[in-house]
Input
Amino acid sequence: MSENDPGFNRDRPPAAEDAQRHPAPTSPFFFTVPSNPLPELPDIPPDRPVLIAGPTASGKSALAARLVEDGGGVVVNADALQVYDCWRLLSARPSAAEEAALPHRLYGHVGARQTYSAGHWLKEVAAVLAEGLRPVIVGGTGLYFSALTEGLADIPHTPPEVRAEADARLAEAGLARMVAELDAETAARIDLQNPARVQRAWEVLRATGRGLARWQAETAPPLLPLSDATALVIRPDPAWLAQRIDSRFNLMMADGALEEVRAALPGWDPTLPSARAIGAPELVAHLRGEIPLDEAVAAAKLASRQYAKRQRTWFRNRMRLWHEIRLP
Output
C-alpha cells in the first residue's frame, strides 16, 4: 500500500477544521479510517456499547478512536498482545500521545512474564463497564469477544506443573500428538491448527479430568450479550490487507521495532504468551545471529499475513450476526 492509497491514508486532509477535530496520528503505523466505509455504519446511540473486531492492520483502532472522539466513551482493548507493556510497536498499540488524547483502558498494563488469559481480561472489562463510560471495545482476539458476548466457563486454574508438562509434551511429541490426546468433543470444537488453543485444551483435560468442551457447556451468562451492543466486524479484501500488513511492518521497523525486541531479549522466553507477538520470534532470531535482518522481516510479514488469515476465518465462522464493514 502506498502513501497515496485512497483507501486508508496515514494523514488526514489538511483542512483546518478537520485537523482540529481529528489531529494527525503520532505513530507512523496509525492508519486513520477512510471516509468511504463510515456511511455503512448502523445508527449507534451515544450510550450504546460498540464492539469492533477485525484482522490485524485493518484499521479497527482508528475506527474506535473516531467513534469515541465523535460520540464519547472509552476505547477498550480486546487484543491479547496489546495488554503487554513490552510491546507497543510490534503489537500496534496506540502511541502514548494517542492514549492520552482519549480515554483508553487495558493497554500495556501487563508485564511480559505475567500470566494473562481471557478470564483476566473479562474481569477487567467488568470493572471498566462499572465506570459508566460508553465502551468501544476493539481488537482482533476472537476469544475475548466470545467470552464477553457468550460467557466464559469457570475453569480451574492450571497448576504450574501441568503447564510445564504441557510445554514439554508439545516440544517433544508435537502438535499432532497433543491433538490426538484430546477428548473428541473438545477436538471437534477448537482450532486444531492453533498450538496455544490445543495446549490449553490439553492442560484442562490433564488438570481436571474433564474436557474443555464439557466445562464450556456450563458457561455463566455473558457480561455483555450481543443484543445489547452494536457489533461491527471489518472484512477487508485479503490482497489489500496483505499490502497493508507489509507496509505497516516496514513502518514499525523504521520506528524502532528492532530496538523494542532488543530490550526484551535479556528475559526472552519463547514459552510465554507475550512471546507470541507477531515478528518478535523472527527479530529475536536475527539479534541472536541466526538469520539476516531481511529474512527476519520477510518471515515476520509472512507470519502476520498467516495470522490475519486465521483471524478472518474465526470472524467468518463466529461473527455471522455482526454488522460487516467491507474494505477497501
Notes: Confidence is low (pLDDT under 50) at residues 1-39.
